[in-house]
Structure formats: C-alpha cells, structure tokens
Recover the amino acids of this structure.
C-alpha cells in the first residue's frame, strides 16, 4: 500500500509539472512570442515560403513578437508584420488564442489562409499613390531595395484612415495585400516579425 501511495503522489507531481509547463508555454505563445512557417512567395526575396507543390522548397521559420502593438503602439515604416487579412472581421480574444498553431488543433472549423506576412508601407493619415510602377507616400517616391522586381500595378491612390496601416508583400507582382483588401485595422496586427531562425545559414534579425 505504501509503495502504491508513493507512486501515486509521484505521478500527480509529474502531472502537475507537465500541466504547469503546458500552461506557461501556451501563455508565452499567446501573448509574447510565436513561431511561424512562411508560406507562399509573396515576401520573396526577403523571406522564402514553403511550396506545397515543391517538397524541396522549405519555408523560412520566423519568430513573431505578439505584444509589439499593444497599449497604443503602432508599427514603423518597413516593419514586417503578421496580419489577420479579414479586415471586416472583429477579432476577439478567442482569435488570439487560436492563432497559435498548437492551440488551433483544439478548435473546430478554423478559417484557413487568413494569416499573412507583409511589410508596412503606410500609416494613418498617409496618402499612398501608385503611378507608373512607382510608389509615392505623401508625394515622396519610395526607394525600396528589398522588393523582388519592378512592380506592375494599376495607377491608384489610397488614403489611410485612423487606426489602420497599408501593407504589401516584397514580391509585388505576386502578393495579395492592401491593394486588394484595403488598409488593415491596427487590431488585425497579430505581431511583429523579429527573427528568422531557420534555415540555420540565414539566421538573422528582421
């Protein structure tokens, strides 16, 4: 009886330790940092995305700081961000929880493909103009050495409303972004991309 009782206590202690570790990891994943796998080609050449049709093409692994834009903080020009592309959808705490790839396993019928990685081009109050393949922000030509190639885009003008940002992919000719869905509400910013940790030969701060 003593042996059984001792083993039971031992198992309970281990169970509590595992539960505590799970809760701590989940809290970190929800509120602080979260790893993502880049998918698709919209951020090339800066980031390489995995291709489901090409198993030899491995997507970059990145770390996202999820609390970067809380308490009134806004992104700076040029920062790479993770967004929820459902611009007309009001995000809730539940969405924040199930953004986690692991915790999303416990959710039913989660919408797929709404989480994008893009670069901030415009902020609230800015006028973004596309003219003959160039981008002008408040009348000033943007010089962007990170884009993949010369942009083919229809001439257009966007005025960014309060509490929104304008985002684009670096692969301008193969990116769904604010040109299609409009400016992104600040509350739809999931986090800031801070680090690429894989492939190991390309580890760097972003």
């Amino acid at each position: 009886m003593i042996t059984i009782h001792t083993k039971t206590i031992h198992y309970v202690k281990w169970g509590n330790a595992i539960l505590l570790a799970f809760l701590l990891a989940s809290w970190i994943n929800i509120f602080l940092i979260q790893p993502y796998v880049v998918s698709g080609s919209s951020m090339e050449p800066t980031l390489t995305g995995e291709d489901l049709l090409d198993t030899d093409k491995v997507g970059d692994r990145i770390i996202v700081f999820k609390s970067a834009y809380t308490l009134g903080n806004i992104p700076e020009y040029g920062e790479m961000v993770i967004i929820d592309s459902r611009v007309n959808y009001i995000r809730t705490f539940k969405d924040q929880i199930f953004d986690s790839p692991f915790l999303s396993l416990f959710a039913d019928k989660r919408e797929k493909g709404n989480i994008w990685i893009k670069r901030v081009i415009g902020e609230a109050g800015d006028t973004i103009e596309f003219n003959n393949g160039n981008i002008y922000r408040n009348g000033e030509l943007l010089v962007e050495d990170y884009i993949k190639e010369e942009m083919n885009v229809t001439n257009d003008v966007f005025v960014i409303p309060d509490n929104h940002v304008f985002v684009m992919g670096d692969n301008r000719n193969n990116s769904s972004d604010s040109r299609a869905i409009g400016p992104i509400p600040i509350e739809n910013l999931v986090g800031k991309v801070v680090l690429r940790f894989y492939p190991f030969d390309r580890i760097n701060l972003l």
Notes: Residues 32-205 form a domain with the Umud Fragment, subunit A fold (CATH 2.10.109.10). Residues 195 and 205 are 4 Å apart (CA to CA).
